[in-house]
Every structure is written in C-alpha cells, then in structure tokens.
Amino acid sequence: MEQQNKHTQGGNIDKTLIGETILDLSACAKEGWRLSKQHFYSILQGGLFTLGMILLLLMLIGHFVSIDDLQKPSVSLSFGLNLLFTLITTPLITALMMMGISHSIGLKTTFIGLVKRLAASAMLIFCALMLGALVNLGIALYILPGIYLAMSTGFALVLLVEKKYRPSQAILMSMRVFNRYWMPLSQFYIVSFVLFIAGLFTFGIALIWLVPWYLHTKGVLYRTLFGVEVIGQPSTNTDKKDSVFYA
Q1: Residue 170's closest CA among 131, 138, 136, 134?
Q2: Cα 75 from chain centre
Q3: What is the per-residue pLDDT for 245?
Q4: Residue 82: what pLDDT?
Q5: Residue 188: which residues within 8 A CB-CB, separation 6 or more?
Q6: Cα–Cα distance between 173 and 180 in angstroms, integer?
Q7: Strand order of the sheet with strand 228-232?
Q8: pTM of the model as a whole
Q9: How many domains does the chain fold into?
Q10: Which residues fall within 8 angstroms of residue 59, CB to CB, at 6 or more apart?
C-alpha cells in the first residue's frame, strides 16, 4: 500500500538529464525567499543549533590541541580533526538542507527529528568524506577544479538521503545534473557566496536572513531538477497533512 501511494513532487531526473527541465533561477530564488519567510523560525533554530555545535567543537579542539600543533598539524591530527568535524557537522548540515527540500513541497519537518534519523547513517558520513577528499584534491590542482567539484557535488548528500543512492551514485548524479545546468547553478552558488561574504561585513546579522533563503532556494532547485518522493495523496495544499516526506 505504501509503495502504491508513493509519488514524486516536482521534476523528473530522466528529463533533467536530457535537458528537458526548465530551470528559472529567478523564480526559484523568489520562491526560496517566500519559503524562508514562511518557515523562518524553524530553520533559523536549526541553523543556530548547528552554529553552536561548530563553535563548541572549535572550543574543545582549542582546549585539547595546542596552537603550534594546529598551525603545523601532523597527518594523523589532520585526519582526526577532519573525521571529527565530518561526524559532527554532516548530519546537522544535511538536516538543514533536507528541511529546505521538505518545505519546498509544503511539508513540515523538525530539525532534531531529521538529525536523529541521519546521525546513524554510515553511508552519509562516508559520502561526506569522499566529497571532502575530492574537493581537497581539486583545490590542490590549481583551485579551479576544487571550486568545480564543490559546486557540482552540492546535491550529493541529499540525493543519498532522499533517493537512497549509494555514495558514488549520488556524487555522479549530482555532477551529471550540474554539468547539464551548469550556468544557472553556477550563478546560484556564486551569488550566494558573494552575499555570504557581504553578510559578514554586517557582523553576521544579514546571515540570519541569507542562510534560510539559501537553504530554501536550494530546496526548490532540488525539487525542480530531481523531484521529491513522498508517501500519500498528491495535493496542491501548501501544508500537506496527508503526505509523508519519503527520506
């Protein structure tokens, strides 16, 4: 029965891969802004919790690791710190992105509920480690390849969670779609980066609005390009109570 009621909201991957999906970046950004106002407090709470955990982690590292070791870390220390950051931050950041996706199809989810479901995912952590290694390798090859890999794999983690892909499959699918729609997606990432840098000059105050906008716009882009699987009856209601986020 559950399988019979499962359906996709938004786009279709097969059509996207052959370039048939129409991607209006301006319309996606406007919808992302509308969603960020509608779900502002719920996603802001998740963002503040994530920031708090990162700051706490940095404080703990500063307490147990000397400044000299951090300035010239050994291979084992670098690997250990990278693994620690990945274990702590990956479920949190992925949960924020999944909130943006769920809001884009009119469903309400809780940040803590998503984190609890993602924290035990070994494949999610493995995929995040693969992404980190790829981006670092790309940066080592004259920076531009690293920038490309960072942008082109931007949907990999949520593809792994929402589509149940394997890590390698999620990474390759994200790259294939990015290569097909590289112009609007590059514009989105570049504009977002510039806005985040500008937001830092406001002592971070502007980020209170920029982060929810970014997460929701990315959620709309995901829905448009990949589609989102839900369980329940299709509905045009913006607050679908008869559907369940299939992730």
Answers
A1: 131
A2: 28
A3: 56
A4: 87
A5: 25, 28, 29, 217, 218, 221
A6: 11
A7: 6-9, 228-232, 243-245
A8: 0.89
A9: 1
A10: none
Cα–Cα distance measured from residue 239 to residue 226, given in angstroms and rounded to the nearest whole number: 21
Structure tokens at 180: 């097909």
| H/E run at residue 232 | strand 228-232
pLDDT the model gives residue 1: 45
Give the residues of the chain that fall short of pLDDT 50: 1-2, 234-243
Please report the pLDDT score of residue 247 as a whole number.
56
Q: How far apart are the first and last CA of the chain?
A: 17
**Which residues 6+ apart lie within 8 Å of 17 measured at CB?**
176, 177, 180
CA distance 81 to 62: 11
d(CA 187, CA 182): 8
Q: Are 168 and 160 in contact (CB under 8 A)?
A: no
d(CA 196, CA 52): 18
Q: Which domain holds residue 125?
A: 2-245
Looking up tokens 């448009």 gives 224
Instruction: Please compute, for residue 7, the number of CA atoms within 13 A of its CA located in the half-sphere on the CB side.
Output: 10
Task: Give the tens place of pLDDT for each residue, 135-144.
Answer: 988 888 878 8
Q: From the DSSP assignment, how many helices (H) and strands (E) are in the chain?
A: 13, 3
Geometric angle at alpha carbon 124, from 136 and 137, rounded to 5°: 10
Cβ contact 72:87 at 8 Å = no
Distance CA 136, CA 139 (A): 5
Distance CA 119, CA 111 (A): 12
Residue 138 is given by DSSP the state: H
Rounded-to-10 torsion of CA 130, 138, 193, 204: 70
